[in-house]
Amino acid sequence: MKKHWFLLITFFYAGILLGQAPERVDPPEEVINDIPNNLAATITAEDLKNHLSTIASDEYEGRETGTEGNRKASEYIANHFKTLGFPKVGDNNSYFQNVLFTWTKWDETSIQVNGEKYKHLWEYVSFPSRNAEMPMLETNEVVFLGYGIDDPKYSDYGNKDLKGKVIMVYKGEPMNKKGKSHITGTSAPSEWTTDWEKKMKTAHEKGVKAVLFIEGNLQKEISENRRFLVGPKMTLGEQVNPSEMYANSFNISTNIAEAIIGKNLKKIKKARKKIKKKGKSKSVVLPADLKLVQKKNVRTLEGNNVLGFIEGSDAKLKDEVVVLTAHYDHLGKRGDDIYNGADDNGSGTSTILEVAEAFAKAKNEGNGPRRSVLCMLVTGEEKGLLGSQFYAENPIYPIENTVANVNVDMVGRVDKKYEENPNYVYVIGSDRLSTELHEINENANKKYTNLVLDYTYNADDDPNRYYYRSDHYNFAEKGIPAIFYFNGTHADYHRTSDTIEKINFDKMAIIGRLVFHTAWQLANQDKRIEVNVTGRN
Fold it and tell me: pLDDT digit string (tens) for 241-259?
């Protein structure tokens, strides 16, 4: 800075000597206020590599939620926050917000029809978290019950006694020839279609033992829910016994349905035609030798969100909080194979640790952010965004005081589209709730980092639906503006080959600086950003 002012003074006196009064030259903003730029410069490729070398090491065994490797990762993060001098704001005077999970997987599940056994995740699917233990259920008949609906405008149950029975139903609800629902009277579906619990709760209330849902495209159903079906399923908290809420259920292929129907296909077609044409239910009793088994393994596990808190310096603004997130969990081990998750999401975790250090440096130098900043590394993302869901429902700092969420998930690799230009990042969600958040990020990039900002995955019709698939979404659902930084997927996504030697640390450092500059502006501007967009979340 001294050098700049020396030049200005020299030019001033040179102008006097030449007999010309110089025009007034205001020093550029960067000269007057270069604090954020100096702070961002501490986010380096070398430091990011040091963090990731530990987080994505074999010692941490893929960091799967509820495992020893995940616990080690949380301790590493907490020790970093301790080194930075952050206060302990978590449970029991710690850096942790404790999160309880129920871990559920099948020990055995099977369907047998007339002596033929069918394969799980191929001919049928059954969700362990939705089903109670059913060691063996044998029956010689199945009741075809239309759509399994009991509504004032349409009912498949009527006065039928179905206690202890197995029923087979279609998904969705009856629609007439014009495509209008017999329940809503419009083309819009009712809750009987949109709420998967409704039919299962009704069946339970009616005493039904098990429901077989006929699935027109079973492979699509399996593909869309694979993350919840392959390996154990986790849910938040201690699980309520499904037998207290739902009838047991199986989503079955048309092959299994046809085996149960047998010679009664004409009766089923006639019943289906009556339902669609007149909106009146007709059941059919189907003789079939059916055997069902559902045996589960259930455990309770503990995990942690790790909290790094920087208290704001402005007495009027410090109760408002900017929350920065990245998930530190990954897929863990499968046998001897370790899913290290260097990019997913060791890269985001390392980035937030470096951003936290930049904020700590500001605080220590007397230039801390005006609003408070919470750097939170969350667990359970790979299990369904559970760690961030838990925080959003049980916030350490009031949700109404949360200004914005800045989320980083996979920023260490380069996808095919940008093979020739690694200095890019996909930005998702920035304008979904607040156009101001979008502008802040754009301006920060233009001034400091000059990355290519790609909004491809922010489109409302994005088939990948990435906006709904990372931790920022749990904040957005609460009406909090959220921005998600992402590098796109690659061939190593969710594979054992997602390892550290493939990470581009220089790229990571630039993205980390953009994350910092955006968060810095959110934490320091006079006016809290506004939610001014509706209808896109």
Answer: 888 899 999 999 999 999 9
Range of the domain at 287: 104-298
Amino acid letter, residue 196: W
3-state SS, one letter per residue, for 2-26: HHHHHHHHHHHHHHHHCCCCCCCCC
Provide the residue type at 148 as one letter.
G
Query: What is the rounded distance in angstroms from the CA atom of residue 427 to the CA atom of residue 434?
Result: 14
The residue from 244, 274, 298 where one domain ends is: 298
Supply the pTM of this predicted model.
Answer: 0.77
Of 168, 164, 160, 161, give the one whose Cα is nearest residue 143: 168
Q: What does the block give as tokens for 44?
A: 């380096």
Helix (H) / strand (E) element for 524: namely helix 505-524
What CATH number corresponds to the domain at position 246?
A: 3.50.30.30
Convert the pLDDT of each residue in 455-482 to its tens digit.
999 999 999 999 999 999 999 999 999 9
Q: At residue 481, what are phi and psi to the nearest 5 degrees?
A: -55, 135
Estimate to the nearest angstrom the gap between the alpha carbon of 17 and the chain centroid.
Answer: 67
CA angle 61, 62, 63 (to 5 degrees): 95
